[in-house]
Design goal:
With 472 residues, the protein is mainly alpha-helical. The protein has 19 helices and no strands. The two termini are 33 Å apart.
């Protein structure tokens, strides 16, 4: 693509227009993240009551959670292709409509078979969302704030999970599990309003050959760059790439990036964060806490701490860099899982040991959201060049969801079979492996343009050395 083919630079948007567009992007990302978090966490409280209504076994409880994750895996696999073919914004519109329909149907399910079927379809929508939403954000904001903007999606997700626990606590007195599951249909419907008004991303318009629209949107979304030059750079990067198929991820020069994102995605979930999200009432009961009030309210405070940790990550992620945030978060996860292993190994818990266990769960979830939780979205959106970005995000999040599926299905059975101490001890070993993997493979991408990051992987996992300047 030559510069001559590009339209003239459009006049800069007014300050009011830029602020309005920015607010709409922020609102859209926040609402979609809150809905995703709510729908992920709402089952933790609902499961306590619907298990009694539907007479579920431990394996059937696991299936209620894992069927959602299996659907999410399917959605993540098709999410990249859908986002490329129809656009990031259209994919998110599909997600919003699906959220509204399927959460309403789950609240009306007459039996567990119908509930599982609807939760599978809801999971597909979630899988598409976790691919399309970070892409939409990453490709629509300036590089200097991209890390914080993408991580803000995680803040909204954690806020949604925290909201879930407060709602569950408020509804637990009457056992209203149908309301617990169905309330998020309201914000899912409302998020259609900003989505219908926002454009797609400049990079998607370039991908589809609509350079005039790409320049227009680039000028509106990133005032820090020359829109014509930036669109030309994106076009050149696209032209230099082959197809966007998953097969190309397995060959040089992208095999190294693929190994990184698949490993990071798998380790993100196999260390057990969603065991707390899905089964926190059971975990707190194992610690010695009694009564629905405590077992629903305590997880809410855990998620508030996680929310604070995620906000802290956003405030510093574009200042001190990705690696330090990621490694410090995973390191704390390792320590807290070791503490939980020790606490549960003490046998019957009461008094101080119970509250030490609670504190370890709180710090474990906060550390996860500070490190893994905030960075996985950033790395998923940064690791690959434009032609492979959505496919690479799908592959990463598919690995994430495979691990999530294992945790969702087998955690309750492991707790019953080998006990809490051995279960959390195994998670601690896996977290230690995650720390070593991240230390060796995670690059520092702070402040770099998406196309610039491509050079890191093309150069075998090293930043290219700038050519020396000629002598005068």
């Amino acid at each position: 693509m030559s510069m001559a083919t590009l339209p003239a630079t459009p006049p800069p948007p007014s300050s009011r227009t830029s602020h309005r567009t920015g607010r709409m992007f922020a609102l859209t990302g926040a609402v979609v993240g809150v809905i995703y978090g709510y729908d992920t966490g709402s089952i933790s409280g609902a499961l306590v009551f619907l298990s009694k209504d539907f007479h579920l076994t431990a394996a059937e409880k696991g299936l209620v959670n894992s069927i959602l994750v299996f659907g999410s895996l399917v959605g993540a696999l098709i999410g990249g292709k859908l986002a490329d073919a129809l656009g990031r914004r259209t994919a998110m519109l599909i997600v919003a409509v699906s959220y509204a329909v399927f959460v309403a149907l789950s609240a009306l399910a007459p039996n567990v078979v119908v509930l599982d079927a609807v939760r599978f379809l809801l999971g597909v929508a979630i899988g598409i969302s976790i691919v399309a939403a970070p892409l939409y954000i990453a490709e629509s904001v300036p590089a200097r704030i991209r890390g914080a903007s993408v991580a803000a999606y995680q803040v909204a997700t954690v806020a949604g999970i925290a909201l879930t626990y407060f709602v569950n606590w408020g509804l637990s007195g009457g056992g209203h599990w149908r309301w617990m599951l169905g309330l998020s249909a309201i914000p899912a419907t409302l998020v259609l309003i900003p989505l219908l008004r926002l454009p797609d991303t400049p990079r998607w318009y370039v991908l589809k050959g609509r350079t005039d629209r790409a320049v227009e949107v680039m000028a509106m979304t990133d005032p820090d760059v020359d829109p014509r030059a930036e669109v030309a750079a994106v076009g050149a990067a696209l032209a230099a790439e082959g197809g966007g198929s998953a097969r190309s991820l397995l060959h040089k020069p992208y095999a190294r990036a693929t190994l990184f994102v698949v490993g990071l995605g798998f380790f993100c979930q196999i260390t057990g964060i969603n065991a707390v999200t899905y089964y926190s009432p059971q975990i707190f009961q194992e610690m010695g806490f009694t009564g629905d009030g405590q077992n629903f309210l305590l997880p809410a405070f855990v998620e508030l701490a996680s929310l604070a940790a995620t906000v802290l990550a956003i405030l510093i992620i574009d200042r001190i860099g990705r690696r330090l945030v990621l490694l410090s978060g995973i390191g704390t996860v390792v320590v807290m899982l070791a503490v939980l292993t020790t606490v549960f190994a003490m046998g019957e818990l009461h008094g101080t040991a119970t509250w030490v266990g609670f504190g370890a769960v709180l710090l474990f979830t906060a550390a996860f959201n500070f490190g893994f939780g905030s960075l996985i979205w950033v790395y998923a959106s940064e690791a690959f060049p434009a032609q492979l970005r959505s496919t690479g995000a799908s592959v990463m999040l598919s690995a994430d969801l495979v691990a999530n599926l294992l945790i969702a299905q087998f955690f309750p059975s492991l707790m019953a079979w080998v006990g809490a101490a051995w279960t959390f001890g195994g998670l601690a070993v896996l977290a230690l492996g995650a720390l070593g993997f991240a230390f060796v493979t995670a690059p520092e991408t702070k402040g770099r343009q998406l196309e610039e990051i491509q050079g890191y992987w093309l150069n075998g996992g090293r930043w290219p050395t700038p050519a020396p300047e000629s002598a005068p």
